[in-house]
Design a protein that fits this description.
Layout (H helix, E strand, L loop, with lengths): L1 E5 L11 H9 L4 E5 L14 E4 L4 H11 L3 H9 L4 E4 L9 E3 L5 E3 L7 E4 L5 E9 L2 E9 L1 E4 L8 E5 L9 E2 L1 E3 L2 E4 L5 H4 L1 H11 L9 H16 L8
Parallel strand pairs: 1-2, 1-3, 3-4, 4-14, 5-7
Antiparallel strand pairs: 5-6, 7-10, 8-9, 8-11, 11-12, 13-14
Length: 237
C-alpha cells in the first residue's frame, strides 16, 4: 500500500506532512513515497492508494503548477477512476482556475475546478475551524492570504459550523469530487480528527486494528469540539 507525497521539500508548511506520517503510524504497512520536483510522479505509472500534497509558499505554488501542468490529463483520469487525493492548505489553489494578485496580475492554475483564489498579502486570515464531514465533526485551523470564489458549493468537502468556508460569504469549505478531497483546513487535519483518519484508512482499504495513540487522539478531539462549539470563544485572530 502506497501513499505518494508530492514535493515534500517545499509542500511542508504547518506540520502538514504529519497527515500522512500519522496514517503510516496507524498502519505501518503503508509505504510513503516522496516525489520531489525533480522526479516523475509515481502516479504517472501507478495508481497510488493515496496522493497527498500540503501547504506551500506562494512562490512554491508557481513551481508546483508548472510541474503538474503536463500531467493534467492523467490527474483528471485518476480522479475519474476514484483515486484518493488529499490536498491541504493552499495546495488546493493549484487545482483551481487562477490565483489573482493584488496588483492585478494573475497566475493560471491547472483549471480542474472552476474557482479563483484572490490574494491579500497584507491581510493574513487566521482562524479556528469547526465543520461537518458526513456525520462527523471536523476541527482544525486556517492560516492563509487568500480566499477562493466561484467553487460549486454542491462539491464542498466540509460544511462549516463555525468559522468561514472558502471565503467569508460561504459555509462551503473545500472540494470533493469522487475521492479527490481538498481543503484550506490545516492542523494537521488528519491528526486532529481521528474519525476522519479512520475514514481515509477505510477508503484506502488499509487493515489497521486501531488508530495510533487512539485514546489520546479521541480525548483531544472531543475537547476541541467542546471548545470550538463554545459561542463565547473567539474564532478569528
Amino acid at each position: 500500500m502506497k501513499i505518494e507525497i508530492l514535493f515534500p521539500e517545499i509542500c511542508n508548511l504547518y506540520g502538514d506532512l504529519m497527515n500522512v506520517k500519522y496514517l503510516k503510524k496507524c498502519c505501518p504497512g503503508i509505504e510513503l513515497v516522496a516525489t520531489s520536483l525533480k522526479d516523475d510522479p509515481l502516479f504517472l505509472t501507478e495508481k497510488p492508494d493515496m496522493i497527498y500534497m500540503g501547504t506551500m509558499t506562494e512562490a512554491s505554488q508557481e513551481l508546483v503548477i508548472k510541474k503538474l501542468r503536463p500531467y493534467k490529463d492523467r490527474i483528471v483520469q485518476l480522479i475519474e477512476e476514484n483515486a484518493i487525493f488529499l490536498i491541504t492548505g493552499n495546495a488546493l489553489e493549484v487545482f483551481g482556475r487562477a490565483i489573482e494578485n493584488e496588483d492585478g496580475t494573475s497566475i493560471e492554475c491547472l483549471g480542474l475546478f472552476d474557482f479563483t483564489a484572490k490574494r491579500r498579502m497584507m491581510a493574513r486570515y487566521n482562524s479556528l475551524y469547526l465543520g461537518r464531514f458526513g456525520n462527523m465533526d471536523i476541527v482544525g485551523f486556517k492560516s492563509q492570504f487568500t480566499f477562493a470564489y466561484g467553487a460549486d458549493e454542491n462539491k464542498a468537502l466540509f460544511r462549516t459550523i463555525r468559522g468561514d468556508g472558502m471565503n467569508r460569504e460561504t459555509k462551503a469549505e473545500g472540494i470533493r469530487v469522487n475521492n479527490f478531497m481538498a481543503t484550506y483546513v490545516i492542523g494537521p487535519l488528519v491528526v486532529l480528527n481521528p474519525p476522519f483518519a479512520s475514514y481515509l484508512l477505510a477508503v484506502m482499504g488499509a487493515e489497521c486494528k486501531e488508530l495510533a495513540f487512539s485514546k489520546a487522539a479521541y480525548d483531544v478531539y472531543s475537547t476541541r469540539i467542546k471548545e470550538f462549539s463554545d459561542p463565547n470563544r473567539g474564532f478569528t485572530y
